[in-house]
Amino acid sequence: MRESVQAEVMMSFLVSEELSFRIPVELRY
Q1: What total number of domains does the chain contain?
Q2: Which residues are within 8 A (CB) of 14 and not within 5 positions of it... i.e. 6 or more apart?
Q3: C-alpha angle 8/10/15, rounded to 5°?
Q4: d(CA 7, CA 16)
Q5: Could you tell me the pTM of the whole model?
Q6: N- to C-terminal Cα distance for the chain?
Q7: Where in the sequence is the domain holding 27, given as residue range(s)?
Q8: pLDDT of 1-29, one tens digit each?
């Protein structure tokens, strides 16, 4: 159970990081 929670945290972190990187790029072009 602890691994699934850690996996969800990692996914949410990667998604938020990807969004924070992708949004400025989309605004740029």
Answers
A1: 1
A2: none
A3: 95
A4: 14
A5: 0.50
A6: 42
A7: 1-29
A8: 688 999 999 999 999 998 888 877 777 76
